Amino acid sequence: MFPAILFYMILFAYGIVIGSFLNVLIYRIPKKENLVMTRSHCMSCGYQLRWFDLIPLFSYLALGGKCRKCKEKLSIQYPLVEGLNGVLYLVVFARYGLSIESLLYCLLFSALLALSVIDFRTYEIPIGFNYFILALGLIRVATDMEHWTEYAVGLVAVSLVLYLLYRLSNGAAIGGGDVRLMGATGLLLGWQRNVLAFLLGCIIGSVIHVIRMKVSKQGHVLAMGPYLSLGVAISALWGSEMIAWYLGLLGF
User: Fold this and answer.
1) Using an 8 Å Cβ cutoff, are 90 and 126 in contact?
2) Which residue segment(s) compose the domain that 38 sits in?
3) Dihedral angle computed from the Cα positions of residues 94, 192, 138 and 121, in that order, rounded to the nearest 10 degrees
4) What are the tens digits of pLDDT across the range 103-144?
5) Cys bridge to 193: 31, 56, 213, 235, which one at CB 3.0-4.6 A?
6) What pTM was computed for the model?
7) Could you tell me if 133 and 44 lie in one domain?
8) 145-157 tens-digit pLDDT
9) Same structural domain, 13 and 132
């Protein structure tokens, strides 16, 4: 029992450290800032953060959510992204244990989390995230060559339809980043779970979008990235069981 608890504690710590890096990506990529050379600093006063200001979750709590120097309130995004990434890692390993799937899906979930926040704010999915997920898909194929055709079909099963919709609507119906995202995730998940992920994303996005319009009393441009990402996450974790259940209802 103790080794398992220790393992999950280390895993969560690793997850929140990666989550801290995700916050850097979320802030700097839309601004096209250097990811390596620019030191972390307060967005209000420019105070350059010291190492003890950068401990994921704990520094935010110790400082009461405020800058050490100017006392300006820090965005709640920082601890939320860090903590959520840590929790997602725990969920993935609880589902798949020590396996290649756990490694790939943890990295996938981190990429989905970062691109979702960026897309929600800017209505654009940086292409680097799609390339990263595509690379994960290539690793998945290389480690499961027996089912390579399922992954190959997954690359185009959803994305090809979305690409045609993108071209016919001149980008009004769907964004190019969404098309690339579903292609990359299809290579990683396979065509069945990727179709499920897309359907789940559309349903979740439609429901939340209607609620947002009702609450705010105004229309919103729909950023699909966060909802597609949620659909992908659900399908990656439980898609096989959901598909088997549905086919069972149909008598297959």
Assistant:
1) no
2) 1-98
3) -80
4) 999 999 999 999 999 999 999 999 999 999 999 999 999 999
5) 235
6) 0.92
7) no
8) 999 999 999 999 9
9) no
